[in-house]
Amino acid sequence: MSGLKEESSEADLKGSYFYISTFQHLDESYFENDDRNQYFEIFWAREEKFLRFNDHEETNGDWMYLIPPFRNYHFKLANRNRKGILIAFDKDLLIYEAKEFSLSVFKFFSREGDFTTVHIDEQTGKSLTAISNLITEEYLLKRDNILLLRTLIKAFLLKLMDNSSQQLISPGINEKRIYRFLMLLENHYITERNVGFYAGKLNLSTKRLNQILKQKIDKTINQMLQERLLAEAKHLLFVGKMNIKEISFSLGFEDPSYFSRFFRKMTKSSPEEFKEAIRLRIQGLDRKPRW
Question: In Å, how far from its chain's centre is CA 215?
Answer without folding.
Answer: 23
